[in-house]
Design a protein that fits this description.
Low-confidence stretches of chain B: none
Strand content of chain A: over 45%
Radius of gyration of chain B: 14 Å
Shape of chain A: globular
Mean pLDDT of chain B: 90
Shape of chain B: globular
Mean pLDDT of chain A: 91
Largest sheet of chain A: 7 strands, mixed
Oligomer: heterodimer
Order of helices and strands of chain A: EEEEEEEEEHEE
Distance between the termini of chain A: 36 Å
Structural class of chain A: mainly beta
Helix content of chain A: under 10%
Radius of gyration of chain A: 13 Å
Chain lengths: 114, 117
């Protein structure tokens, strides 16, 4: 079955530690995205990538970093510089222009900073 | 820049009652419109979308939404809801850019639909 996988589902980290969230897709989609979801705030775009080896900052990129070395993978690192990292993180992908087909989402990773 | 306003943060209804979840958007260009549904602790699932053509679009599970350009709205409706429809619903917009990618979705803050027995 084609889809997007995110791991782990739940993640706990201590303050001051970097942590990497995994996102893999086997839909052969060109574009991938990372969103952060907080209660009552909807989804906010962190980073997106339209092709391999290229990515752009979204609306709230500070304290996060990404890489796109392979078409199917788009890991997100939450660094110690992110002041309030506890949130639900969602990865998505789309075939080229996301506006027509919409974006397809993974199941999410819930990050809690202790 | 685009924006999306979902007018109700929570909508409680009884089973088998009709429901309308409201969505208004603002954009200086033509748009594509989407409704997504999110069940607890899960990702978002695309419910339906408007790209062009008929202004009334339907999903496979009985929801429908109507694009109203003059009122810049894309309200989601269902004539009779089930307990299983309890979820959070997000409206999203993407602008139609000619000659380039239109990758970015702008989301509303969501409406929590709670269906009570």
């Amino acid at each position: 079955d084609g889809g997007i996988t995110q791991s782990p589902k739940y993640l706990f980290r201590k303050e001051g530690q970097n942590v990497t969230l995994s996102c893999e897709q086997n839909l052969n989609h060109d574009a991938m995205y990372w969103y952060r979801q907080d209660p009552g705030q909807g989804l906010r775009l962190i980073y997106y990538s339209q092709i391999v080896n290229d990515f752009q900052k979204g609306d709230i990129a500070e304290g996060y970093s990404v890489s796109r070395e392979k078409k199917e993978s788009f890991p997100l690192t939450v660094t110690s510089a992110q002041k309030n990292p506890t949130a639900f993180y969602l990865c998505a992908s789309s075939m080229g222009t996301g506006g027509i087909g919409g974006q397809f989402f993974g199941p999410g990773t819930r990050l809690t900073v202790l | 820049a685009q924006s999306v306003t979902q007018l109700d943060s929570q909508v409680p209804v009884f089973e088998e009652a009709p429901v309308e979840l409201r969505c208004n958007y603002s954009s200086s260009v033509s748009v594509y419109l989407f409704w997504y549904v999110q069940y607890p602790n899960q990702g978002l699932q695309l419910l339906l979308k408007y790209l062009s053509g008929s202004t009334l679009v339907e999903s496979i599970n009985g929801f429908e939404a109507e694009f109203n350009k003059s009122q810049t709205s894309f309200h989601l409706r269902k004539p009779s809801v089930h307990i299983s429809d309890t979820a959070e619903y997000f409206c999203a917009v993407s602008d139609v850019r000619s000659g380039g990618s239109n990758y970015k979705l702008t989301f509303g803050k969501g409406t929590l639909l709670t269906v009570n027995p």
